[in-house]
Amino acid sequence: MPDRLTSLDLTFLKAESAATPMHVGTVDIFEPPVHGDDGFDYESLVALIRDRIAFVPRYRQRIQQVPGRFAGPIWVDDEDFDLTFHVRRSALPRPGTHAQLLELVARIMSRRLDRARPLWEMYLVEGLQGDRFAIIAKSHQALVDGNSTVDIGQVVLDSTAHPRDTPTDTWQPAHPPSALELLAGVFADATRHPAAVLELARAEMASLTGSTSVREVLGDVVGSVVAQRHVQESSLHVKTSGQRRFSTVQTELEDYRTVRAMHGGTVNDVVLAVVAGALRAWMMTRGESVSPTRGVRAVVPVSIRDDDDEEPTSLGSRVIASTVNLPVGENSPVMRLHQISYQTKVHKDTGRAVSARSLVGIAGFAPTTLHALAARVATATVRPIDDVVITNVPGPQFPLYAQGAPMLASYPVVPLMPGQGLSVGVTSYDGKVSFGLNADRTAMPDLVVFAQCVTDALDELLDTTKGSRSRAARGRKKPRTPKKAGS
């Protein structure tokens, strides 16, 4: 029988609107291939996806509704699947700047995916400075579940410049089930999993009648006085528009290790402390009150080990939501780090936390899938009182390649939650820590200021370390503009 969408998948479809598209994305930047004279062009990307898409069969499936909609829809093969519709070509006027690339990313991420087709798109962007190119990918949150489906970005990259061999793809779309077969499938599911069918029916009826609002789906505290006051105080809570801004920051992984070695905690704690410092400085540039007790509630998805009685995912771990109060009112960067480490220690002490080293050992470029899973968890658990979503996923510390082209940087694009103006995605890769900053275009015209605050917050923490390289030795000067990919 075809796979049926889960109640969580239906929640994503229900919560999606023109103002809150529910897809997660990545922006990967490459140099030309190190071998061969043909370079990397649109035909190369189409051929690469055609060779690897068999590893992610869900990417050739679309959503099929059940007659009467009294049960959840199913995934069916798209009989009219057209790879060239999903893999698209774009270009910047040469020499394309990083700022121009970011503007293109923002426009692509603002558009919803076509629900009549498989829920993903990929763009080859040519014309970047230095003969570089970018690949922009986006997948709907209902598509990537980490069990039967991983993100397509995980299967198109290789650990060497020589692409691995793939088996011949003999895929032929299966005929979609008839109305009678769909109904028979519902009755069969009801017999095997009655509770699941009732939950799916409830979610489907809520979607049809509109009886469950987005706020009711995402949280039940919208009417509380505390939540109302908190939202009014924070410039991170906005009326979300349908347009986005996107910015990036690239930093050195060694800097985070230096801070960790001096002050304790983990690299993830240091990343959160950098975000806390950046939020504090950004709020102050806006003239916003930052009292000593002020905090920012961050939803920070984390990976945990599967219990023995749980079905393991394809990645060997699950992702759950964790809430961290970022102490933006604290003036000392070291105290901010210690307060964050104290909060995250509760999760570490459970014994189920998955170390960064274990995650990096996952075959393929797992960060693309783990960011998608983190976004799923955040969307399902975020409440109106929460301020921002931060996903931080470690990646391999060696170069990866797409058809022989070395990848220089990878930036995640985490979707905005309803009513939130900013999301932060972080990926470490090949000695770098890369921030993808996704923001509402109307609410955050000063996103570039926040990006600058990220680099300044890291410098502020580095200034507190002893025995590390001096600022002069690193060649850093203040003020410094955010590093751009490949710069």
TrEMBL record:
Keywords: Acyltransferase, Glycerol metabolism, Lipid biosynthesis, Lipid metabolism, Transferase. The keyword Transferase applies. Residues 5-271 form the O-acyltransferase WSD1-like N-terminal domain. Residues 468-487 have a biased composition (Basic residues). Residues 465-487 are annotated as: Disordered. Pfam families: WS_DGAT_C, WS_DGAT_cat. GO terms for biological process: biological process involved in interaction with host; glycerol metabolic process; response to hypoxia; response to nitric oxide; triglyceride biosynthetic process. Pathway: Glycerolipid metabolism; triacylglycerol biosynthesis; Lipid metabolism. It catalyses: an acyl-CoA + a 1,2-diacyl-sn-glycerol = a triacyl-sn-glycerol + CoA. One of its GO terms (molecular function) is diacylglycerol O-acyltransferase activity. SUPFAM superfamilies: CoA-dependent acyltransferases. It is an enzyme of class 2 (transferase). The keyword Repeat does not apply. Belongs to the long-chain O-acyltransferase family. This is Diacylglycerol O-acyltransferase. It comes from Kribbella voronezhensis.
